[in-house]
Design a protein that fits this description.
alpha/beta, globular, 14 helices, 51% helix, 8 strands
């Protein structure tokens, strides 16, 4: 489960001849498609030079959603409201006793009372657990998306988004629906092995190794949480494809930056573009 929630790919971002950035071309038109890291350490900068080269060549930056709006108090309030149970219902009602006790133990080991989470839905609990572990690892700085969002605004480049803020909240709220116990138990397991997984993920991301990245990050999710995989990845990728194809019909150059899991695997954007006859080459 971590492989989706934590595709924040945490590692030093240095200059490599290969990275998770691809150039898509057809009929003389082109765009750049990059897999992103959502949270970084300060020492992870500067980013791989390929990203900056693509940025300079691009007219428009395209992100999953409006990053500025996602940081407003209004967004936080709305998400909290949708991910909080109404009066009379709590986390205990969504989880069985075994899962609740394991969550309680996990939080106690981090000097946190489970009562602080009692009114949150499991999807919110998972997100908070992720933030806790990221902070423990020192991951507190802005990631690739926000970095280039700020850079695009400063440079006066055009900015576009695939989804509205409300759509993003809806996806987060519905995470693990119907599989709440499995989601919490899997997340606890993954939180405890997070650091040991980072070296494998780091290598795959830095090399832009699609097969390795998919094997490490998608295989378990597809097997154990097929509904979640369809909702959070396949459905969204399919929604984005018509927009990407439309971008390929004009001479403007777009730089699309989305979570790396959206790019790889049999349902990933890269494979879909290849099947439609586009040239897809790793950008070097």
């Amino acid at each position: 489960m971590k492989k989706y929630f934590l595709i924040l790919f945490i590692f030093p971002a240095v200059c490599f001849s290969e990275t998770s950035l691809w150039q898509v071309s057809k009929n003389g038109n082109t765009l750049f498609l990059g897999g992103t890291i959502h949270v970084l350490k300060k020492e992870d900068y500067p980013l791989p030079v390929e990203f900056n080269h693509a940025f300079k060549k691009s007219d428009t930056l395209v992100f999953e959603t409006d990053i500025d709006k996602a940081q407003t108090p209004e967004f936080g309030k709305k998400m909290s409201q949708m991910m909080t149970y109404p009066a009379g219902k709590s986390l205990k009602d969504a989880l069985n006793k075994n899962t609740f006790e394991k969550l309680k133990k996990y939080l106690a080991e981090r000097n946190i009372s489970v009562e602080q989470f009692i009114h949150y839905k499991p999807s919110m609990v998972v997100l908070i657990m992720t933030v806790i572990e990221l902070k423990k690892m020192g991951m507190v700085d802005i990631g690739v998306d926000q970095y280039f969002h700020q850079k695009a605004k400063a440079a006066g480049k055009s900015i576009a988004y695939f989804e509205t803020i409300d759509e993003q909240i809806k996806f987060m709220v519905s995470m693990g629906s119907g599989n709440e116990n499995e989601m919490i138990l899997s997340t606890i397991k993954d939180m405890n092995r997070m650091e040991s997984m980072m070296s494998v993920i780091k290598s795959a991301w830095l090399k832009g190794d699609e097969n390795k990245l998919a094997a490490v990050s998608l295989t378990e999710m597809m097997r154990d949480y097929p509904d979640l995989y369809q909702m959070l990845l396949v459905k969204r990728n399919n929604n984005w494809m018509p927009h990407i194809e439309k971008m390929m019909t004009d001479k403007k150059v777009e730089m699309i930056l989305v979570g790396a899991l959206h790019l790889v695997g049999k349902d990933g954007l890269l494979q879909q573009l290849r099947k439609k006859g586009y040239s897809v080459k790793q950008y070097k």
